[in-house]
Write a structure and sequence with these properties.
The chain is α+β, with helices and mostly antiparallel strands. The chain has a domain of 222 residues: archaeoglobus fulgidus dsm 4304 superfamily (archaeoglobus fulgidus dsm 4304 fold), CATH 3.30.2170.10. The chain has an 8-stranded mixed β-sheet, with helices on both faces. α5 packs across α6. Its EC number is 3.1.21.7. This is Endonuclease V.
């Protein structure tokens, strides 16, 4: 997929803060509510080296569609509020290697719930133009009340008088996660998606799988086979069944067409044979007719000769032979 290069990567804190302040005005807080492909993004650090991982899932089945990992180096010092700049260059490269374009980015981090209101989810959303949301494991800014104990319970996160996210309980009696808008998505939709994408565990499946892929990229590459970046798109069961039925129908149609063609050829051959037999019968009939004429002619000749010779054989005295 293609990503807009809206700025060079900063080398100083002032440059990084200036980029955040400039791009914050491009964030949109409304957008689509349904998504087909959902990408989870995460990074695993090994000292100053890192592995960025992107895992694209089918939103309906949560089946893996594509996986990509990229090895890189931390591109910026560790500064609170500017942490995204350490990861962005490698994450952007991983996204650019995707062969499919996701409809939603789910980031392990924050969006509006950020000191300058422009966290990793906002930044990636603006760069890609895609809807994006952030899911944090711990609170970053603002205050909130602990949500109820049931799955789906939430409470608002308030920072400097504004609601910037929600503390969301994705599993009963399990610690909440911290959801915030990134780009082109409402807070309600971001909350619904975070909950729907976490059917069994605390964290949504896209970032859980991205975390595992970033930690163990070799395992996934080995399962995918040599020379590939990760597992490719596997159609859902319904899609595979539909394709199988379509293939069977096409095969049956071809078989029927072939049988009709064979039957037509046989009929044509039989017709030709019948025509040949008819011609042979006609020829035989003509020959029989000629033979009959010849026989009649021979009989007539014999009768004529006999009638001519008969008076000569009668005695002149007695009138008898």
């Amino acid at each position: 997929m293609r990503i807009k290069q809206l700025h060079p990567w900063p080398t100083t804190i002032a440059e990084a803060e200036s980029i955040q302040d400039r791009l914050r005005g491009d964030v949109e807080l409304t957008g689509p509510t349904a998504f087909s492909l959902v990408a989870g993004l995460d990074v695993h650090y090994r000292s100053d080296s890192l592995t960025a991982a992107v895992v694209v899932l089918d939103a309906g089945t949560l089946a893996t569609v594509e996986e990509v990992t990229v090895e890189g180096e931390a591109a910026f010092p560790y500064v609170p509020g500017l942490f995204a700049f350490r990861e962005l260059p490698t994450l952007v490269e991983a996204l650019e290697r995707l062969t499919v374009t996701p409809d939603l980015l789910v980031c392990d981090g924050y969006g509006l719930a950020h000191p300058r209101g422009f966290g990793l989810a906002c930044h990636l959303g603006v760069l890609t133009g895609l809807p994006a949301l952030g899911v944090g494991k711990t609170p970053f800014v603002g205050t909130y009340d602990m949500p109820g104990a049931e799955r789906g319970d939430w409470s608002p996160i308030v920072h400097e008088g504004a609601v910037v996210g929600r503390a969301l309980r994705t599993q009963r009696d399990v610690k909440p996660v911290y959801v915030s808008q990134g780009h082109r998505i409402s807070l309600d939709t971001a909350t619904d998606q975070a909950l729907r994408l976490a059917p069994r565990y605390r964290l949504p499946d896209p970032i859980r799988r991205a975390d595992h892929l970033a930690r163990h990229p070799a395992d996934h590459t080995r399962r995918a086979g040599p020379g590939r970046r990760g597992r490719r798109y596997q159609p859902s069961v319904l899609t595979r069944v539909a394709k199988s039925l379509s293939s069977l129908a096409s095969t049956d149609s071809k078989r029927f067409s072939n049988r009709v063609s064979i039957s037509s050829n046989l009929a044509s051959t039989d017709s030709k044979r019948l025509s040949t037999d008819s011609k042979r019968l006609s020829t035989a009939s003509k020959r029989l007719s000629i033979r009959s004429v010849r026989r009649c002619s021979s009989a007539f000749r014999c009768s004529f000769v006999a009638s001519v010779a008969r008076p000569a054989m009668i005695s002149p005295n007695t009138g008898s032979v």
